[in-house]
Automatic annotation (TrEMBL):
The keyword Coiled coil applies. PROSITE patterns: NPH3. Residues 466-500 form a coiled coil. It holds the Pfam family NPH3. This is NPH3 domain-containing protein. GO terms for biological process: protein ubiquitination. Keywords: Coiled coil, Ubl conjugation pathway.
Length: 555
């Protein structure tokens, strides 16, 4: 018999027929919903006989189903295939309201139980109370998306805590997206299966984003979950508003992210020359964080001077520590995406220029990322190479980074000269005792400690002074030898290039005049930095300085 119009089909009709003939039927969680709907459809009400099927099912619902959260979820799941009758008799709304009310009751009881555990006078078992999201939140994963949205909206309106809502959302999203992972796009791109999977992913992600708690810098939603949602949203081509919402949430708590959270694959279907990672999304996320920092500056203008000094001057303040974390995160991200051969220099430069000057105390991480990018992209334009290296503050490079940069042939000549110049100034100030002016690679150089006593801080013993002078002399000799080796290599390359070009173009007068000007500029640079050109004799001034330093070290 075809009984498709009856809610529950032939099974519900058979149970109703047995009930009419006086055969005892057992009402359970698995059949109470369809029996209630079938009784309404067949008009088995109290109008015709007492204790009819409708009354029996209502009694079971009130006594067994509605007071219990798990039972209500199980019956609500059975109502998914009983629409529209289940909606007409208001069964779905009653079950959803029962779940929301009982969840809030359990939350209150759990809070009181935790409060009792805080008082040692009451002798209770040392058992951690179980939160509602631990024992019933996972049961919501059996519901379809529509019913889940309605349940979560109801519990939010009843006042369920945001951390519990976050746990429920994470569990439901994980279970719903299992099996919907899009496979290799080159294999199934454009197929019906691929389009269907993308559509399901897109619907789930957009629904989950709409149910997330309120945006805040101290959100209860974990960063890893937000990152996975954004990756899925980009892969499934979700709406722009959905992706913007996720980017905003990630930017609010960017200081809690790690590298894996911001390595977002790009949606480059069918494009073999596309980039590996979505750098534009990361650029917007970091911009959101920096704009929030500027908003905090506006708010901080209303504070007193002492609090303002704490916010800006101390590297351990919450604001400064967050900026330092984000700067290290960005440098690590740049080093990772620099390995992508399809990444355009303009996008890499935009990310490198994003942070303000005060965000980095040491520029070694940025220098490493730039060096990797130049190594992977050897054919970029000289203007882009110069602009990229301009993002590095040579004064914030450590001694190891300076030594590497001075010998790095991938860097422009201007930057190599600048590194040598600042390194020489640092060594000169170290010789003169000015350690705090150009001391790179330490936090104390950016935040020097003040002396509390009235005496000068330079009052040290002659023994310590002698040891420090000898150590500084050794470092100076090593640095001068290293610079001379570097300059010798440059001079050899210059001579070989000149000979080769003259050999190929013997009448090239323009090149000869250019090489003469370059030699004059190099010699003038040596004289400015108290260095003599290679092969020249030492003058009287340099001999006098060397003898004075030698006498000083011997004394």
């Amino acid at each position: 018999m075809n009984l498709s119009l009856i809610p529950g089909g032939p099974e519900a009709f058979e149970l109703a027929a047995k009930f009419c003939y006086g055969i005892n039927i057992e009402i359970t969680l698995s059949n109470v919903a369809m029996l209630r709907c079938a009784a309404h459809f067949l008009e088995m009400t109290e109008e015709f006989v007492q204790k009819n099927l409708e009354a029996r099912t209502e009694a079971y619902l009130k006594d067994t189903v509605l007071p219990n959260i798990s039972n209500s979820i199980s019956v609500l799941h059975r109502c998914e295939c009983l629409s529209p009758v289940s909606e007409e008799i208001n069964l779905v709304n009653r079950l959803i309201n029962a779940i929301a009310n009982n969840a809030c009751k359990e939350q209150l009881a759990s809070g009181l139980l935790k409060l009792d555990h805080n008082f040692p006078m009451k002798t209770m078992a040392n058992i951690e109370p179980e939160t509602p999201s631990d024992w019933w939140g996972k049961s919501l994963s059996v519901l379809n998306l529509e019913f889940f949205q309605r349940v979560l909206t109801a519990v939010k309106s009843k006042g369920l805590k945001q951390d519990m809502i976050s746990k429920i959302l994470i569990n439901y999203t994980h279970n719903s997206l299992q099996g919907l992972v899009i496979r290799d796009p080159h294999i199934v791109r454009g197929s019906l299966l691929d389009m269907e999977l993308q559509k399901k992913q897109r619907v789930i992600v957009e629904a989950m984003v709409s149910l997330l708690p309120t945006q805040s810098r101290r959100s209860s939603v974990p960063m890893a979950f937000l990152s996975s949602l954004l990756k899925t949203a980009i892969a499934s081509s979700a709406s722009t508003s959905c992706r913007s919402d996720l980017e905003r949430r990630i930017g609010l708590q960017l200081d809690q992210a790690i590298l894996e959270d911001i390595l977002i694959p790009a949606n480059s279907y069918g494009n073999n020359h596309g980039t590996m990672y979505d750098t534009e999304s990361i650029l917007r996320i970091f911009s959101i964080f920096l704009n929030l920092d500027e908003d905090d500056d506006e708010d901080n203008r209303m504070r007193d001077e002492s609090e303002m000094a704490y916010d800006f001057d101390s590297p351990g303040s919450p604001k400064q520590s967050s900026i330092l974390k984000v700067s290290k995160l960005l440098d690590t991200y740049l080093a990772e995406v620099a390995l992508d051969t399809n990444l355009l220099p303009s996008k890499f430069i935009a990310l490198a220029e994003l942070l303000p000057d005060h965000a980095r105390i040491i520029s070694d991480g940025l220098y490493r990322a730039v060096d990797i990018f130049l190594k992977v992209h050897p054919n970029i334009k000289d203007s882009e190479r110069y602009r990229l290296c301009k993002t590095i503050d040579c004064q914030k490079l450590s001694q190891e980074a300076c030594s590497h940069a001075a010998q790095n042939e991938r860097l422009p000549v201007q930057m190599a000269v600048q590194v040598l110049y600042f390194e020489q100034i640092r060594l000169r100030n170290a010789m003169n005792g000015g350690h705090n002016q150009f001391f790179f690679g330490t936090i104390n150089s950016q935040f020097p400690q003040r002396s509390s006593s009235g005496a000068g801080s330079g009052a040290i013993s002659p023994r310590d002074n002698y040891a420090s002078v000898r150590r500084e002399n050794r470092e100076l000799k090593l640095e001068v030898a290293r610079m001379r080796m570097r300059l010798t290599d440059l001079e050899k390359d210059h001579v070989s290039m000149k000979q080769e070009l003259v050999r190929s173009h013997p009448a090239n007068k323009i090149f000869k005049s250019f090489t003469k000007k370059l030699s004059k500029q190099l010699n003038s640079l040596f004289r400015i930095n108290n260095l003599k050109p290679i092969g020249s004799k030492p003058n009287a001034e340099s001999r006098f300085l060397f003898q004075r330093r030698r006498r000083h070290s011997i004394s």
